[in-house]
Amino acid sequence: MNATTPLWALPAASDTASRVDALFLVVLAVTGAVTLAIFAVMAVFAIRYRRGSPAQRASPPTQSRVVELTWTFTPLAVFLCFFAWAALVYGSFYRADPAAMTIYVVGKQWMWKAQHANGRREIDELHLPAGQPVRLVLSSEDVIHSFFVPAFRIKQDAVPGRYTAISFTPTRPGVYRLHCAEYCGTDHANMGGRVYVMQPAAFAQWLEQGPSGASLAAQGFELFRRLGCSGCHDARSSVHAPELDGVYGRTVHLADGRTIVADEPYLRDSILLPKKDVVAGFEPIMPSFQGQVSEADLSALISFLKSLQPGGPSGK
Amino acid sequence: MLYAAAITTFFFVGGAAATLIRLELATPASDLVSAETYNKLFTIHGVIMVWFFLIPSIPAVLGNFLVPLMVGAKDMAFPRLNLASWYLYVLGGIFTVATLLAGGVDTGWTFYTPYSTMFSNGAVLLAVCGVFVVGFSSILTGLNIIVTVHRLRAPGLTWFRLPLFVWANYATSLILLLATPVLAMTLVLVALERFFYVGVFDPSRGGDPLLFQHLFWFYSHPAVYIMVLPAMGVASEIIPCFARRPVFGYRFMAYAILAIASIGFLVWGHHMFVSGQSLYAGLVFSLLSFLVAIPSAIKVFNWTATLYKGSITFSAPMLYALGFVGLFTIGGMTGLFLASIALDVHLTDTYFVIAHFHYIMVGGSVMCYLGGIHFWWPKISGRMYPEGWGRAGALLIFFGFNLTFFPQYLLGWLGMPRRYHEYPPELQLLNVFSSAGAVVLALGYLLPLGYLGWSLFFGRKAPDNPWGATGLEWQTASPPPKHNFRDIPEVHAGPYGYDPAR
Hints:
The complex is a heterodimer. The model of chain A is unreliable at 1-5 (pLDDT under 50). Chain A starts with 14 loop residues before the first helix and ends in a 9-residue tail after the last helix. By secondary structure, chain A is of the alpha+beta class. Helix content of chain A is 35%, strand content 20%. In chain A, a hairpin with a 4-residue loop joins strand 6 and strand 7 (154-158). Chain B has helices at 2-24, 35-70, 79-101, 115-119, 124-151, 164-196, 209-243, 250-263, 279-307, 316-339, 341-347, 351-381, 387-413, 428-458. In chain B, helix 2 packs across helix 7 (209-243). Chain B starts with a helix and ends in a 44-residue tail after the last helix. At the A-B interface, helix 1, helix 2, strand 7 and strand 9 of A face helix 2, helix 4, helix 7, helix 8 and helix 9 of B.
């Protein structure tokens, strides 16, 4: 990239980027044509009907219901098309491929921290394999941040106290800008880094490099024991606590009659705010772990919970 | 007049902050000001321009003067309330100046939690107080205009004989009255949270930071229409006058004003498409945002049709009004990109949004504010402004504005986030264009300040009706006597009885 980056020079490096670009070009073409048409008509009228021109101006029309309704409903029809198309593309950002690779990303003044499933961590960088669907689960340790990769055309706020997620498939190997797009304080402009999209083989190699440690799920199991979770949630425990094998993705019936799908936000709330969604048939006796577990610990714990197979023995 | 002086002062303070911002952004590195100073500059620019200039500009300066004249009344319904609301404005302004003296505030004009409540070291409380107080000024102005339009219309002046300027200010006043209290409550919560750790917005105490965004935008999105509806009203007076023909589709113009004011309350969530609100909420807000664009489109088409078979002169107010229609069209069209929810994900919080809302607020509101000031200057001051200078100023501002803000659309598409004092070097060229434009624009704004000030003392005496306009305000002396009219006029026809053949 040089000093005169043209409009079309923004790389499109994901499936989301090509879908967004197609929509963008169509909206640009339609609105651009209409705008130019309006300006042309204004210019023609301004010249033709300038004061003193010989134009015929007897009985200028002052109203017409047909004309008004035409230019009410024509834009409406066009807008509904834009809306529907954009809604479809938007939906695809939040529908994760079942085979998607989940990466936990935590925003913090003023850095991005990522945790891969095998335990590899990185700061202000994110390595991804081309062609592999990816799902980012975002959270924040302090204020609101926003994870923004222009080359992927995606942006998602990282909000303290909750999980947000966004899905895409990187397609083109290369190095791309990563920004924080939600104002977060003094060094907001410097919060960011690089996203590296790599060939799958190179990515696998990269993943194995670096300090070898336990996988995220194994770290979670360690925490599960250390924090005393297993004391109650183990099948052999005398305490009456919900069974956690296969909990992820299960439909849970709650004490107040609601049902909820046990996704990451639910597991997160159950650890930090256990009284919020109490499972039917259980007493709300679980203590909150708010303040005892960091965002990184939470991702590990949840990775561990997700790794538990239905009916299998706890732990690895 | 008091309003005009106070608002002009704040406009130039806010403008100075904007000039410093653009000068910093002339280079990719941080060299003119530090990150912290930069953050304070854009915050104060936003706070002053939104609450101390744009919102009060047309309703308070022109509305308080013109609404009674246009409805054929002796004064506003509550003249003392009017003065009280000016005092509140000044009190709010004092808090804001105190914020600056106390070292400034770095939250952005949006005061997003938990940054504003838990993390910022700036003078958040002072700034919040300033906005809180000036909100009451808005509410009282709105109330006053509503009562004036309901109660003080001259005999024969039915609702569908009201000039569109009155319609626009009436609808604006409804929004002021209904939305501003929500802002006040939200700001009180921010102050309580900051000092007493109440925990409404703090997730570690069971609060929800997104709740703040919902409350804030429930006010601040309608506030956009507070800023732009009066501008539409001004354009709807100027264009028929200088095209010498009635406005096309008067009734649809009035309905469109009401439609914008009401649908405008239902689109706040389009500021939050990437915030983590539910997918379905996002879709509903996207659809409603498209709907609110339709009455705006109707208005643009009707203004254009008003030129057809007219007899057009291009005086300074007309140049401003036509400039407004063009810039508002671009601003509105780019709004469609942002309403297209999947495009918004890429474009939100980038310079695309900055360019979009400056086209609406500066290209829209400021152009019409200046157009209105020129159009009614003879009536307000009793003096004519120098026409040649007026046209030159309008053209300079139009040119400077486009040079400043058009490159920002491209910057936004290329992914330059807003509120950055540093940026990738490959984006420098467009930023240099934008900063150069800002200098032209600043000069453009100084020009009217100079010649309008000059004309106050040395301008030619204005006749009662220099433009041959039809409004009731032109049937009294320039400037109007103490009670506006010698005899309360009677109205027998709708507004805009212009004839292009004459």
